[in-house]
């Protein structure tokens, strides 16, 4: 049996990936061609016999291997000898200290390339035979902190990711490993010009207190032309210099604009401040109904960390959609936080990474990848909307950023705050078991009141033919328009229609590379696969029978609902908000600001509208189809539906007392629908917890998914079945499958899934998976194996 008494997050190491996908580019300033030539030269010349190497280091390099590689350290890189080190080398005392500190970022030869790596926090192993290669360069950047190195190792162990790949996630801006070029400037030499004019006197008067200026800055400050500055430079009054790069964002002020809090908010804020002041690991759940002021409350914890001269990380599920949160940061602290997400340009990305490593950036608001930034003085981590499924990454490296935020908080020995109106079941269980503190905001702030939720039974009140909106929803929208207030129609389905078929022969349009229907996007005139991105124009004739004008859309998407809204309310200003509409991050933010300002009357949106936005003029929310997520074969289907529908209906009535929501459903007796109608989320969560405990489902038990894929179906199935046969027997672990995945083919690869289920958190599920993979033997190049610990999706 694979049993252990290790804490919740501890595990062993294993993983599979493709090295070519992860080799980082060298800094551009080094020159790619010259770096490649250097790498080839290194492969031929820069090596030493293993038995001749006195100073070795372990380096984490981006390859799918379980441990670090050993490299020799050139004498020029070595620190001066110390008596302790000399004695250790002679065998008089314990092991010698590392010749380069753990966390040092270096460049090393790897095959025929030079790649960035990190000195590991483990002693190197000298090979029994063969030749070692030299460390090529030490980058001029702060070393990674000991807490970050500890987190990297834990992350690799828990998620079964090769540790070099985990370290690579930290080195996300390779060009920032060298100091960024500063601003050209002039430094006063102390010399005086041969002749003083009034203009020159004004310039010289500024120099004693600030001897270094940019040319344009000094001319502007002195009120003179740039020619005056140039003349003084020619006369030796100035020498060339450089100013540090401008800060990504100015330093925030903890007490810039202290808020006026209600009594409940003040009590909650003080509880979070105390957690930060302890300067030790602890997790607090900040739970409050939508519109209760959770953001303003956790800002007080941020302010406390700033007073302690510490850095703060705020994780957000959709950084591109949270302009309001960033604006609220600026209002509270005088400046916005630094942002970190995939939409940053290369230069901004490099500057942000470098200034975080140097401690110049104090607050970062970012997507899940911000968890791997090289903070040096991290004092607080906040996970906003901690329940959001966007925190789970399911590409290449699988991890849940919420859980890993808790892990990094433990490594750094700091406070972690999880914030949500609808906490995840796992978080609620941790609160009930005393692992997390519970801080509650029970009511909305100011004039806001939770909306009254009504249910539209579509069996009793079906929509008219050709329509998808019931009579009660249409009437509520008309009343809202008459009052010059806003309505939101929610449908978690992108595009115009999820399926297009021929009414003559029944042909259905499907993706050639995935087992998925093509979704019609009428605005673009395309049929699109939402899994791989394949698209084709909407044809005029059926490709099966050749009949013209008989292709029909089946079911609604947000575009089709928008079409109906336009037909019903032609004078209303309507806007569709989905992942397909925002061309850029700034474009999407502009759309959201238009909603906030009241420039839009009716919003038709997908789950993007449920991400914590504050729409002060919104008083009605209609859920077009509440049943979409209820019947998925997923242990979290009910929980996710409840969270999503609670969040979206919570957009109404945040600033106006009278508001309502209507939920269209064909299943009014479903526990999720009943809980929403009754406003009793606690009863729903209790029911979910009882069912999970009864069947040893997470968080009471553990799960891991093994996904085997290949372009050849037989190859994928053969290895999956081999894996099942070779897996060890365990009374505490059940191995299910293999079975063809519900999404059997994706991006031209056939997929088979195995599910590992342990009935206790004390079972070492990673050790079981590792043993199974080792017993199955090497994987052919055509087959890919991915391991997902704590899976959220079962497609």
Describe the protein's topology.
Blueprint: H1 32-45, E1 47-49, E2 56-60, E3 69-72, H2 83-89, E4 105-110, E5 113-119, E6 131-133, E7 137-138, H3 146-159, H4 163-170, E8 183-188, H5 198-205, E9 212-213, H6 215-222, H7 226-234, E10 238-243, H8 263-277, E11 282-288, H9 294-307, E12 311-315, H10 323-333, E13 338-340, H11 346-357, E14 363-366, E15 378-384, E16 392-395, E17 397-400, H12 401-412, E18 415-420, H13 425-432, E19 436-441, E20 452-457, H14 471-482, E21 486-490, E22 499-502, E23 519-521, E24 526-528, E25 535-537, E26 551-554, H15 558-568, E27 574-577, H16 585-597, E28 602-605, E29 618-623, H17 637-649, E30 660-665, H18 671-678, H19 681-694, E31 702-710, H20 713-726, E32 733-746, E33 749-758, H21 765-776, E34 783-789
Parallel strand pairs: 11-18, 11-19, 12-14, 12-15, 13-14, 15-18, 20-30, 21-28, 21-29, 27-28, 29-30
Antiparallel strand pairs: 1-6, 2-3, 2-5, 4-5, 4-7, 8-9, 8-10, 16-17, 22-26, 23-24, 24-25, 31-33, 31-34, 32-33
Helix pairs in contact: 3-4, 3-12, 6-7, 8-9, 9-10, 17-18, 20-21
